[in-house]
TrEMBL record, chains A, B, C, D:
The gene is argC. It catalyses: N-acetyl-L-glutamate 5-semialdehyde + phosphate + NADP(+) = N-acetyl-L-glutamyl 5-phosphate + NADPH + H(+). It comes from Nicoliella lavandulae. Belongs to the NAGSA dehydrogenase family. Type 1 subfamily. It is found in: Cytoplasm. This is N-acetyl-gamma-glutamyl-phosphate reductase.
Amino acid sequence: MQVAIIGITGYAGMVLYGLLKKHPGIIQINLYQHDLIEPTPLEELAPQYENTNKAVQPYDSAEIIKNNDAVFFATPAGVTSKLAQPFLDADFPVIDLSGDFRLKNGAEYEKWYHKPAADNDELAKSYYGLADLSTNPGKNYIANPGCYATSVLLGLAPLVQSDLIDPDSIVIDAKSGLSGAGKQLSESSHFIQSNENLQIYKPNEHKHIPEIMAQLKQWNPKVDHIQFMTTLVPINRGIMSSIYVKVKPGVTEAMIKEHFENVYHSSKFVKIYNHLPTIKGVVGTNECHIGLSYNPTTHYLLVDSVIDNMIKGAAGQAIQNFNQLFAFDADFGLQLNPVLP
Amino acid sequence: MQVAIIGITGYAGMVLYGLLKKHPGIIQINLYQHDLIEPTPLEELAPQYENTNKAVQPYDSAEIIKNNDAVFFATPAGVTSKLAQPFLDADFPVIDLSGDFRLKNGAEYEKWYHKPAADNDELAKSYYGLADLSTNPGKNYIANPGCYATSVLLGLAPLVQSDLIDPDSIVIDAKSGLSGAGKQLSESSHFIQSNENLQIYKPNEHKHIPEIMAQLKQWNPKVDHIQFMTTLVPINRGIMSSIYVKVKPGVTEAMIKEHFENVYHSSKFVKIYNHLPTIKGVVGTNECHIGLSYNPTTHYLLVDSVIDNMIKGAAGQAIQNFNQLFAFDADFGLQLNPVLP
Amino acid sequence: MQVAIIGITGYAGMVLYGLLKKHPGIIQINLYQHDLIEPTPLEELAPQYENTNKAVQPYDSAEIIKNNDAVFFATPAGVTSKLAQPFLDADFPVIDLSGDFRLKNGAEYEKWYHKPAADNDELAKSYYGLADLSTNPGKNYIANPGCYATSVLLGLAPLVQSDLIDPDSIVIDAKSGLSGAGKQLSESSHFIQSNENLQIYKPNEHKHIPEIMAQLKQWNPKVDHIQFMTTLVPINRGIMSSIYVKVKPGVTEAMIKEHFENVYHSSKFVKIYNHLPTIKGVVGTNECHIGLSYNPTTHYLLVDSVIDNMIKGAAGQAIQNFNQLFAFDADFGLQLNPVLP
Amino acid sequence: MQVAIIGITGYAGMVLYGLLKKHPGIIQINLYQHDLIEPTPLEELAPQYENTNKAVQPYDSAEIIKNNDAVFFATPAGVTSKLAQPFLDADFPVIDLSGDFRLKNGAEYEKWYHKPAADNDELAKSYYGLADLSTNPGKNYIANPGCYATSVLLGLAPLVQSDLIDPDSIVIDAKSGLSGAGKQLSESSHFIQSNENLQIYKPNEHKHIPEIMAQLKQWNPKVDHIQFMTTLVPINRGIMSSIYVKVKPGVTEAMIKEHFENVYHSSKFVKIYNHLPTIKGVVGTNECHIGLSYNPTTHYLLVDSVIDNMIKGAAGQAIQNFNQLFAFDADFGLQLNPVLP
């Protein structure tokens, strides 16, 4: 197969390109950049590619469709929706890493993203690809979930689907490394500001809240809201979502553990641990590690869900979705070692 | 005045010594070490003191009482209680940075500390010195609060004292730098393990839980439990306690803000901010910065309370307690600049 | 005394302001900003000053001269020289933290700084204040040395002044934390780029090279060149200069050590160590720690010279120069504890 | 092929195991541990392997030889030499990641390693496998080079082999991340000590000095000594060797560049850059990136040579040597992406 990446210069595009190069089902990767006018050597756009001989083509939907079997959008929110139309019209396979097609309601998108939304009937064509828990019903436009959303939803699914917890009690304290803040220079990602520091950001305004809520509600309509807060921590990669929920009376620790193990029994990527996992165990991989800690005094359960935000939270899950769509093995291109030590 | 420090080689003792050297009310600091047999040059015990000419004396309670006006215990939990008797007997001024006299109940101490407790009547003689919120009733034995406890109690006091929140809803996600884990070598504080990582530790077993609970219950007996979790983050100094509480119906954001400002109006060290404070603003100082973020959808309030664990969470608050006991100005020895940039 | 700071919003200005507030000889600090039009609350210019009530005035040389006894320029290179004229004309005391008056030759300044230089006769009025090694001959315009220059010159002085080394053999590998790169956002100080990385920068083009050379040549005309290279390391503060020099035949390790001890015998800030000092011992202080390691096989000597780039390398040395000018004790305002742990 | 790893619990063994699992020529990896008495689940020895079902066998040379086609020693220096005899006797393929067989002279080994050496005739059987520059003459016992040695030798080879530099002028300032210091707890790798710090260590006593010297002398007998110093920097992985050499009169920058490009023209792993490479470009890969900066004033050349100490400096080069020995493609198992962002 031949695949296209649009948006190679951002972090997600870069990681995606690295992974796809090893995918046994792909023989060629064609690179495009939405803001180019003419073909340009990759190393001019991103100096880390010095010594590679690869050109990047300008965006041209007809060309892309003609020369590829699928396209990955690694373009920013607000940009993707402007480029997606021809692919939707042609029912061409798209894996979209941006947030533009994750919400089904344009008005809600505009409320959280502060950008113009795609039309609601376009949004309706997309499939939210939480790859470890859902199966593509045959849709060709896949909205790849957000990084926080992935770690939170994988951590909450067994509890919410089975109605084991008080749906009003969900408190999520999520921590992310700086790669989540992207390549764009900003004060909060200036080394001096972020190093030796912790920074809570976008309180109650994070774009992943509606995406998480939509999925939770679909699993269990009793879930009406979540308290979700994000903190920047001075590491490069990784997300830890510390999820606090009040367990319903009568639900035991053993029942909870069993539920998690059942839900993820056959998963190649989600693993339930007997200890509380740390970020180091997942960075570099497409895995989600989950640990549980029940407090019999408070009846709160802590779910500790960790992922690599760039892989499971972006490029890796995109490949999972690609594999599902084209019936490749789930872990094609995703047999990865953690970055240890 | 002359003061003694017992336990100069640990992190808290080191910071305390540095601060006391600048205290305008102190003319001499005498150093003692509980496990010494004979006087020893300080630089032999701690190489960072090379080029200072200072000796450390072996522990001798009679000598200490004779030559000093007050003593600071910077000894580990389990050690202090074995050394404290003569000072309690003599009603000699003690500021105790360890956890040995914070709990009033020996059995509870042993449950959480896994070490033998002091006698209950000894414990009864001590005063829990949460210096920004309480006034020493004239007791000479001051138990200096724990670092997490300080940041949590200062963040919760206005809410709990005034009954503004659902007392069953308190969830605390506290993050600490590695200095909180002490000087002792351990796997979790090995650079390779802690750097580029987040580690949840001692889930539901942290020693500061009973200390926090005892104070909260005293303020408001309706508080029956807290969900308290601690995560090690790869920074040297600082604690951020992210405190989540459900606000009672009818309580508005403005009322909450006002309460915080009233409670800390005259405080030299606790400051209420309009934004969510970060750790960098307090490291190096004895300040506690508090920010608030109310979520009208979930009715949860986030209290973001940050301190320098070594100063406000240990040596600085010890000096505050010392100042109170001897009627010095609250900020003697504590006019400090944050470590910026 | 009353003193002025021009340029409070940069890192050096911020640190300087913090230190001057504790200086026992100063009763008021007036803040000015060269690019302001009207008085502005400090916290609007720099959010870390929230909760302080301090205004910043626009730059007005006549006002500054009228209301102050001395002025500190913490303005960038290229800016200072444009503002300095009235102060030079009035022979008003200036401590200039920028690089604009460190070189005596305008053409050389322009070659290294790529900015217009001050006139040569203005440059001639300034005094290069390497405070631990020279005494102000009575000049009111003090050019405060650069951070790298300070660590290198203090490390080389005893060797170069006494002609103990091969003057052609000087190789300096200097490492600096990111605060040295300033507050300005840039790719190399983006957290993701600088964290978990080492970056050599400005090879053979660093502005401090001519400043170091001028001083070395003055001490010993045989020194014709130095090989000086700088590497950014992922820490906030601190410089380590690893200085390699070939020792002349017949010069012994003991002779070298003795020379260093003699030169810095009475210094309050420069200390010679028996081990190789690390950065942690000096961050937060105005000290320079020096260690020596002689290799009898290669006849190379390593001089390990470490400073806090923001204090000894900027604001602290500026205060030393201020103290010299006004005959205060050398360590007024500079009795500081290292940031340990 | 089936291969054995002895010493899976150290950092090098862990990385090696991860890489070998993807090697297309290997169908099974058998794990052994020299200090085990009975078969033990891997996750008991190293908790990061929870959820894998892999057993580790006790060391038994006969069993290892019977069941494997080659063995990798990832055991510490001083241990390997005690275990190697049966493999040498059987002329069984060994790739030895320890330092025990890198030096040909037992007395020199003992001087630098402070441990008993293997016999000189055993040492003579081994081949020093600097894989990018030498070809195995058919020896079955391969001593894999040290991490620093690899980065230094690859950086110096084109200069030393072609006699382009003053052989007396070699000064190497090498910086390493903490993984180089190993898994063993120690004060210098305690987070609080190493974070926000730089630490020069083992001045003039580093074990890699004789290994580098032996190779350099073999290339060019005029090289009599090197000045080599190592500094610990607060990153997990990576080595940057800043190599300073005085270029001979008449040698131009262009000649140097050309030499480097010729020497590494056909190398899959050593790449010459137009800029000065940083560590981030190589971490996660088996590559060595080299940049050059010539100073026409001082006639010094800086060679900036960066590698991932765990891969090119250990496990990756071991696999290169394995590939050479068994005539696999050079990059089998070594097509790796850098850890970016």
